[in-house]
Amino acid sequence: MGKLFSSKELYKLRNSIPIHVLIETQLGIPAKISEGVFRFLCPLCNEFQTAVNPRTNLSRCFRCEKNFNTIDMVMICRNTDFVSSVKYLQTILNPRESGHGT
Ligand SMILES: [Zn+2]
């Protein structure tokens, strides 16, 4: 995998978009608040045994025993590769800039 994106840029994409907003609003994954916890339908096992951690901005499925960051979620839900998923997140973060300058 080449270095198409700087680690700083990837860090920003993983942390600047609240993961629950990405899940519910951008990706349209079914989600609900249960016992005060945001839960979403796991795209891998289709169960609601999930949670998000606002501190790390990761989502977790307890059944799959996996953590997903924003890029992982886009790759799984949109079935896109890493580069396309990063570009998708960039358009969410910078809706007015098409493409990315340096
Ligand atoms: Zn799962």
UniProtKB/TrEMBL annotation:
UniProt cross-references to InterPro entries, sorted A to Z: DNA_primase_Znf_CHC2, Znf_CHC2
One Pfam family per UniProt: Zn_ribbon_DnaG
One of the GO biological process terms: DNA replication
SUPFAM superfamilies named in the record: Zinc beta-ribbon (SSF57783)
Sample GO molecular function, one term: DNA-directed RNA polymerase activity
Residue span, Zinc finger CHC2-type domain: 8-93
UniProt protein name: Zinc finger CHC2-type domain-containing protein
Organism: Desulfobacter hydrogenophilus
